[in-house]
Amino acid sequence: MAKSSVLFCGSWTEDIGDSGGFAVCEGGLKILGVRFWARGSAAQNWEARLTLVRSRLGMWSRQQLSLTGKVIVVRSVLLPLLLHLAYVFPVPARAKLALTRAVFRFLWGGRYEYVSRELMYAPVAGERGVPRVPLKLDVLYASFASKTVLERAPHKCFFLARFYLAGFFRHLVVLSHVVPRADVRSPAYEAVARFFRQCPPSISRAEALDHRALYARLACRQVVVPSGVPAGVRWDRVSGGGAPGMVRDLHWQCALGRLPVREVLHRHGCSASALCPRGCGAPETVSHAFWGCPFAGEFWGLVLGLLRRVGPGFVLSRDVVVYRRGLGVVPAVSAGVLWDILGYAKWVLWEDRMSAVGRR
């Protein structure tokens, strides 16, 4: 009794009166790392967790990580910080926006996002495997709440969850007129109903109970195909190989055409000129920077001798440099080595291009 206390949540206009011999908690309670107050517990807990997320991502942003490495940090460091709280409180809309903004600010280092977020999320066609963090947290909360109603082994919250959600899940659960049901749901359970109303009607009982299957179903609803990229590009091969992550990221952005070349910057009002910084007088596109520029042509002429030592008879072309199309004529082992050499060469060419911009 001495170690227990009572917290009255919500609005209490009448006198509380006898609390059953327990002390009345004036402040908040902390239970398994989650704090509860009389009002606004969800918002305050998520705000505190957002502060921790920003701190952790700020620490990792000081490391020289590739995009792939940063995505691994989001999966292995960021998500575990949020999972426990996601089972207790639904994520407020403001916290969802802040989480998404923090993730992409970390991925791009606070700079311009050269690849659209939908393309970063996309399951095919050049994806980076970035998890949809707000969707993941919503799925965890809704799936756990549905388990308390639909599973045969009753959870300790079964009766409360059934009171608020049995009417909503009437197509999945057998209802009894003896058991009371709520006509108006509390905000916590209304968040569950609102989430499932936004899901496709074909969501099955098994998917509702399995958060992994539900997330996979909802995350793969939209397939985004990058525009301006030839059909048949193998994205697993474009960004693969044994080169460092920075080189693989350059391969990937080069194939997508999402690099800060002058033609793109000028089109968005970020550059006074769209012409090549090397002075050839042509508009600088991604294809021009890595192949069409006379400087790039001279550079590849120097590299071609090394490439033909690895793959005799190797023919260098724009499709090989940009999209890795045409390496199938050489053995698989040689193709991997050639692609890594091309990656290092493209890195040198791009770094020299950035130096040319700085000199101008």
From TrEMBL:
The protein's matches in InterPro entries, at most eight in alphabetical order, are given as: RVT-Znf (IPR026960)
From which residue to which does the signal peptide run?
none
* Domain Reverse transcriptase zinc-binding: residue ranges: 243-300
- Per its record, how is this protein called by name? Reverse transcriptase zinc-binding domain-containing protein
Gene source species: Aldrovandia affinis
